[in-house]
Amino acid sequence: MNNQQQKEMWNGRAGASWVRHNTLLEQLLAEPGRRCMDALSPPSGAQLLDVGCGCGNQTLELASRLDASAKITGVDISEPMLALAEELKAANHTALKAEVEFIVGDASDSLFPNESFDAIYSRFGVMFFADPTAAFATLRETLKPGGQLAFVCWQSPALNPFFTAPMQAALSVLPPPPPAKPGAPGPFGLAVPETTKHVLTEAGFNKPSIEPLALELSVGASQSFDEIFEELIQIGPAAALIAESDPSLKDRAREAVYERLLEFYSPGNGVSFEANFWLVTARR
User: Fold this and answer.
1) Domains and CATH numbers, the chain
2) How many CB atoms lie within 10 A of CB 219?
3) Is the pLDDT of residue 228 over 70?
4) Are 161 and 264 in contact, with CB atoms under 8 Å apart?
5) How far is CA 251 from CA 66, 166, 170, 174, in A?
6) Alpha helices in the chain (DSSP H)
7) Distance of alpha carbon 23 from alpha carbon 3, whole angstroms
């Protein structure tokens, strides 16, 4: 997708789905974001940027880690997700130490003055750029000299059954979508570490480091499988595939995904997936 298509998607079905299932998604995805936060070393009074901040959960958590003289700005193209971010900010204002601001915008554009930030953070927000080298070069310009970039992104689909298992099950019933080009914008746009290192180097970053991060993602420990399934079937690429499929095939596709996801469920533990990420850091 180009940037305009990404904006339409995240201000449409995808953004609305993320807002609706924000609690579940945070249960699944909070930990890789926290590991990325741990890689940051912001100074006192730091100015931070959270790229692709979505519903603002990680922005607010970062704000709780900073001192009262610091500020963090969350930027995202999704107005529905940022509306929820503002609600969560208001509900959690007493726990926040640093100042928090949310703005609507495309982080690949020149939204901020040069040398505005001490650090840039992102959890799954930088894999969607149509021109990643140009986008990271723009972000680099907003960092102060020596400023830090830290983000977490997905490794290959084969190492992440959270994505692949539901999709494979759906495709046992539905016709496949057009194949994505390697490195195309999307969840796996930065899955190849050599490509990511090349992009960051070409964008002018120094000392890019790419480390593997393996975690188990779990959700729904106190829920029945049927309850968890009704949420999981509405998120991710399989959900989009089923939503856009021939109505006569939808029920069969849902049943196939149900049977596949049931293999990842155990009572008292919920649904658990092995997940593999890249933890990426670099300096201006």
Assistant:
1) 3-156+182-216+275-283 (3.40.50.150)
2) 21
3) yes
4) yes
5) 48, 14, 10, 11
6) 3-10, 13-20, 22-38, 57-65, 79-91, 132-142, 161-171, 193-202, 225-232, 236-243, 247-262
7) 27
Distance CA 147, CA 121 (A): 11
Distance CA 49, CA 151 (A): 11
> pLDDT tens digit string along 38-66?
999 999 999 999 999 999 999 999 999 99
Q: Are 47 and 274 in contact (CB under 8 A)?
A: no
What one-letter code names the amino acid at 45? G
Q: How many other C-beta atoms can be found within 10 angstroms of the C-beta atom of residue 232?
A: 24
- Residues linked to residue 136 through DSSP beta bridges, in sequence order: none
CB 143 within 8 Å of CB 149 = yes
- How does DSSP classify residue 54? T
Residue 237 has pLDDT above 90, yes or no: no
b/e sequence 153-180, b meaning 16+ C-beta within 10 Å: bbbebebbbbbbbbbebbeebbeeeeee
Instruction: Output the pLDDT for position 181.
Output: 74
Distance in angstroms (rounded) separating the CA atoms of residues 23 and 28: 9
pLDDT beyond 90 at 7:
no
CA atoms within 13 A on the CB side of 69: 5
Cβ–Cβ contacts within 10 Å for residue 236, how many?
A: 20
Per the confidence metrics, is the pTM higher than 0.85?
A: yes
**Residue 254: CB atoms within 10 Å:** 17
Written as six digits, the tokens of 233 are 């079937």
Q: Residue 208 in contact with residue 282, Cβ under 8 Å?
A: yes
Residue 9 contacts by C-beta under 8 Å, 6 or more apart in sequence? Answer: 1, 15
pLDDT at residue 1, as a whole number:
64
